[in-house]
Amino acid sequence: MANKATPEQTLKTIQLVAAAVILLEALVLVGFAGFGLFTDILAGQAKSLPAAIFEVALYAGAGTWLFFVFRGLQKSQRWSRNAAIFWQTCQLAVASQSFTGRGANAFIGVALVMSSVSVMALLLSKPVLAANRKEISGE
């Protein structure tokens, strides 16, 4: 006889899978910040030092924010679901530009689209939306 998962367990599993993808995205952004710090700023390869500093700060800030979104998803906090959907939408905009133009890289575009669509599908699934309705109505 198979054990059937409760709606709460299903919700928690969905949020943890989405959180794992968000954590991976956060680690990639922090990795970009570290790479930029060492290659552009410390090694002196930046064409514009202020632009390199801004880029490193932007990557580090976005990675830090995504880490907080990850923690919020782990704790089932409603704000983190909204923040994750927002980030995935922004990431899709970046992905669309990864297919054309100067410096286009289809691999990056596909990776961004796949992670964004998977997280959005998870966070917009029936169990998550039902949990949101219960939280809003106070059930």
Strand content: under 5%
What is the overall shape?
Answer: elongated
Give the helix tally.
5
Number of domains: 1
Mean pLDDT: 89
Radius of gyration: 18 Å
Helical content (DSSP H or I, runs of 4+): over 70%
Q: What are the low-pLDDT stretches, counting only 5+ consecutive residues below 50?
A: none
* Main sheet characteristics: none
Spell out the helices and strands N to C: HHHHH
Oligomer: single chain
**In total, how many beta strands?**
0
Head-to-tail CA distance between termini = 31 Å
Structure description:
It is a single chain. This protein has 139 residues and is an all-alpha fold. The protein has one domain (10-134). Helices cover 81% and strands 0% of the residues. The protein contains 5 helices and no strands. The protein has helices at 7-42, 49-74, 78-97, 106-123, 126-137. Helix 1 packs antiparallel against helix 2 (49-74). The longest helix has 36 residues, at 7-42. The relative contact order is 0.14.
